[in-house]
Amino acid sequence: MKKTVLQLLISASIFSASSALADPIKSIEILGLDSISRGTVLSYLPVETGDDYNSQISGQIIRDLYKTSFFKDIEVSQTDQILKIVIKENPHIKYVDVLNYSDKVINEDLLKQILKNMDLSQGKIFNKRQLDKLINQLEASYISKGYYGISINKKIEVDAQNRVGVELDINEGDVARISSMVISGGNVHDEDDLLDLFDIGEADFFVLNYFTEKDHYSKVALDAGVEAMKSLYINSGYLDFKIKNQNCFI
Question: What does pTM read for this prediction?
Fold first, then answer.
């Protein structure tokens, strides 16, 4: 019997302590808003007026608001049953300019669509991680076209209205060129016929190559040629056709 009474007392003590720490919220004050509305902030809060407030709720509010990526600094406190949230907004995007890009790698319409899909267009909340993803994607696009010396310099400026201007200056470097291209091991089809399946290869006659850029290495074009060669052999009845090795030396 003594053991049961002791347990009940402990439970009651814990409940009382928890109740004492909780404090109902009569109103919510949000300071520091600029372009984001009060209603937007309230929609992300895990509490509303009338709910109890404690230190755990404070931490949850901060975590939930940071998850939105809208804010770079958040402070939460309560005085006289008034929940006070002080925030600093992340800057909005004024512009993102990509300079000196090549239409042969990425055209203007595609670039605009990429910026939109990555939420890097004008008016969006600036997110450095998204900018880094954009730079990585641009670099990958150039490398796939043989521009292994690609480098992208970024310049970020924040104005007095907390708006970010971004400039990405592309330096393509020299494109990798194909000095020779060899297909060995095939007995069914002539090597020249197989090489004709590729849009890339050894340079054409000088004047023609100026326009075709056939000797410009491209991983995309190489893969397309390999698939065309596989299809040719399979359609010729060689269902077990395989490429044993594919080597590229740069």
Answer: 0.65
At residue 212 the predicted structure's pLDDT band, cuts being 50, 70 and 90, is low
Report domain extents, the chain. Answer: 2-89, 92-171, 177-250
Band of residue 180 on the pLDDT scale cut at 50, 70, 90: confident
Report long-range pairs for 96-100 (Cβ below 8 Å, ≥24 apart). Answer: 96/120, 96/121, 96/122, 96/131, 96/134, 96/166, 96/168, 97/165, 97/166, 97/167, 97/168, 98/138, 98/168, 98/170, 99/167, 99/168, 99/169, 99/170, 100/169, 100/170, 100/171, 100/172
Q: What kind of fold does domain 92-171 have according to CATH?
A: Ubiquitin-like (UB roll) (3.10.20)
The SS3 assignment for 110 reads helix
- CA 77 to centroid of chain Cα atoms: 34
Does the domain at 177-250 match CATH 3.10.20.310? Answer given as yes
With respect to CATH, is domain 2-89 assigned 3.10.20.310? yes
Whether 2-89 shares its CATH topology with 177-250 is answered yes
Using CA atoms, how far residue 123 sits from 90, 92, 164, in Å, is: 12, 6, 10
Of the given ranges (14-23, 118-127, 130-139, 172-181), which has the lowest mean pLDDT? 14-23
